[in-house]
Write a structure and sequence with these properties.
By secondary structure, this protein is an alpha/beta fold. It folds into 2 domains: 18-51 and 90-204, Rossmann fold, CATH 3.40.50.1100; 58-87 and 209-391, Rossmann fold (3-Layer(aba) Sandwich), CATH 3.40.50. It has 16 helices and 14 strands. The protein has helices spanning 24-38, 41-55, 65-71, 90-103, 117-128, 139-144, 146-154, 169-182, 200-208, 210-223, 238-244, 272-275, 313-320, 331-345, 351-363, 385-391, and strands at residues 10-11, 14-15, 61-63, 75-80, 108-113, 132-138, 158-162, 187-189, 229-233, 253-259, 277-281, 284-288, 325-329, 372-377. Strands 3-4-14-9-10-13 form a 6-stranded mixed sheet, sandwiched between helices. The chain has a 4-stranded parallel sheet with strand order 7-6-5-8, sandwiched between helices. α3 (65-71) crosses α14 and α14 crosses α15 (351-363). The longest helix has 15 residues, at 24-38. The model has no long low-confidence stretch (mean pLDDT 97). The protein binds pyridoxal-5'-phosphate. Residues 88, 114-115, 117-118, 193, 233-240, 305, 350, 352-353, 378-379 line the site of pyridoxal-5'-phosphate (PLP). This is Tryptophan synthase beta chain. Belongs to the TrpB family.
Length: 392
Amino acid sequence: MNNLPNDEGLFGDFGGRFVSETLMPLIIELEKTYQSAKVDNSFRNELLYYQKNYIGRPSPLYLADRITQNLGGAKIYFKREDLNHTGAHKINNCIGQILLAKRLGKNRIIAETGAGMHGVATATVAARFGMRCVIYMGLTDVKRQKTNVYRMKLLGAKVVPVTSGKGTLKDAMNEALRDWVNNIENTFYIIGTVAGPHPYPVMVRDFQSIIGYEVREKIIKIEGKLPDILVACIGGGSNALGLFYPMIKENVRMIGVESGGKGIETGKHAASLTGGVPGILHGNRTYLLQNQDGQIKDAHSISAGMDYPGVGPEHCYYYKCKRIDYVSVTDNEALDAFKKCCYLEGIIPALESAHALAYVSKIAPRLSKKTIILVNMSGRGDKDISIISEHC
Ligand SMILES: Cc1ncc(COP(=O)(O)O)c(C=O)c1O
């Protein structure tokens, strides 16, 4: 399982690199650079330095005692990625990729963003390394994540609102790929999740795996064993794979929570595994929400970071071989979990992370007090306050 992907970037039937001829040499150069950086001590030490002193790692493991008591079953821990610099797990990947951009001699950074957390993290590292930065963001997301748009601008990035399609993450990614094709000489594309053409899915997974490695080390010291169940939300799937991958060979149950939006039966959701079929988008073969003619359907989620009609190819592989369980929760269930986390733990979670917590709220009461569930608190919810105020 740990030998995947193969040389073509395939996880079984999924992944690969379906890009135009213009981008192919860049993708291959990036893969070579990543392979050499991975085993280069100076790259690893620099990454370690920024993980510790810039992001603030390791992030804490927190026993959510009041939620545990409230649900009355399994013991629930949070991995506090919300406490990272910039407020989410996204920065783990951005630091890694900007160091690769530097290694490749690029000086212009582009990225797509949905909730804006990846955009903010990208703008942050671009500022830190003195690089120009352009962020593509769907117009719908620009409107619902205003604070993050302002943060990106403060950090010196140009934010380009994308009006095509539904104006969400898929459309932003289309636009970023278009920019890349036209600016291959000086531009590095920092993709924000475990999607896109090879080597992005594996590279992003590796940069995010620090989450799971830290969990392993800490929970064994506290509890003397690994968690029984790991739970994380799935937009493209990067925080989930970051948590799961370092324990994928262990006897640990893993649950990825997709956005069921207004309910799977309504068709208004973003559950690509639960409700999609295989197809090709953004350079890789993956599960996608499509209509009968193979056209990509618009996803719906209350949470901008979950609002993507695809999912990372490695998740498709684990879905098919049943190593990871994939489930969904609705917008309303996520909202309830959001509120519960605020008033019981004093933690305002990102709406994305609230999806993971919502599923935990369903299963924890039925489990024994000896069962340990670890939830990835992928980000903080300051960005979501205006959406929440419309629903409460
Ligand atoms: C806080 C937070 N969690 C989760 C996600 C979903 O992304 P992924 O599935 O790649 O972790 C996002 C995406 O923007 C996010 O901002």
